[in-house]
């Protein structure tokens, strides 16, 4: 069975973005990129909410074409261009190069997880992440806790009656102050 792996930056007080959706507080470095690259290598499907997909799709298809492209841009662009993309949206028009899930999302994702292939990875998409957590669909959590307190914003954990028990697999502190915590659903 495929795992659904969530990669998400979070503030110390549990927010994934400012109230307006901005993530200008996120600290990124090469070590974080290398860790993300390791996870994408064991994934053949990318899952996005509409907003995150539009940001990714505006950059990654050609990011590796620049003569000054970084190692990360080259690697992630190559992965992005070959991976199957699934977007959860009620407003995104159909396209031949992506699968758009508009309704019965939880049921459809459970079916996809039962299929053949590698894992499903999801970068960002905090609203979709909250829904998937509430539905019990996330198997692995890679939380990049940034050393910042936002005070308010888009919360990471959904308001739900269902509890989730997680097991800490690893914790890695990076030179930029970010701590990556890898949890698996028990």
UniProtKB/TrEMBL annotation:
Domain Bacterial bifunctional deaminase-reductase C-terminal per the UniProt entry, residue ranges: 3-179
Domain of life of the source: Bacteria
Any single Pfam family the record assigns to this protein: RibD_C
Residues making up the signal peptide according to the UniProt record: none
SUPFAM superfamilies attached to this UniProt entry: Dihydrofolate reductase-like (SSF53597)
UniProt xrefs under InterPro entries: DHFR-like_dom_sf, RibDG_C, Riboflavin_Biosynth_HTPR
PANTHER family cross-referenced by the UniProt entry: 2,5-DIAMINO-6-RIBOSYLAMINO-4(3H)-PYRIMIDINONE 5'-PHOSPHATE REDUCTASE, DIHYDROFOLATE REDUCTASE FAMILY PROTEIN (AFU_ORTHOLOGUE AFUA_8G06820)
Protein's name according to its UniProt entry: Dihydrofolate reductase family protein
């Amino acid at each position: 069975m495929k795992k659904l792996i969530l990669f998400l930056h979070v503030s110390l007080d549990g927010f994934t973005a400012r109230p307006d959706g901005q993530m200008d507080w996120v600290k990124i470095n090469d070590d974080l990129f290398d860790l993300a690259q390791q996870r994408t290598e064991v994934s053949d499907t990318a899952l996005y909410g509409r907003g995150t997909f539009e940001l990714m799709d505006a950059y990654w298809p050609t990011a590796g074409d620049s003569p000054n492209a970084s190692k990360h841009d080259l690697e992630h662009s190559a992965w992005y261009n070959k991976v199957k993309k699934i977007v959860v949206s009620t407003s995104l028009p159909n396209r031949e190069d992506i699968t758009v899930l508009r309704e019965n999302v939880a049921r459809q994702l459970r079916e996809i997880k039962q299929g053949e292939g590698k894992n499903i990875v999801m970068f960002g998409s905090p609203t979709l992440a909250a829904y998937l957590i509430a539905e019990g669909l996330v198997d692995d959590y890679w939380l990049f806790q940034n050393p910042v307190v936002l005070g308010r914003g888009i919360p990471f954990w959904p308001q739900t009656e269902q509890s989730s028990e997680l097991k800490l697999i690893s914790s890695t502190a990076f030179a930029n102050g970010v701590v990556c915590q890898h949890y698996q659903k028990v």
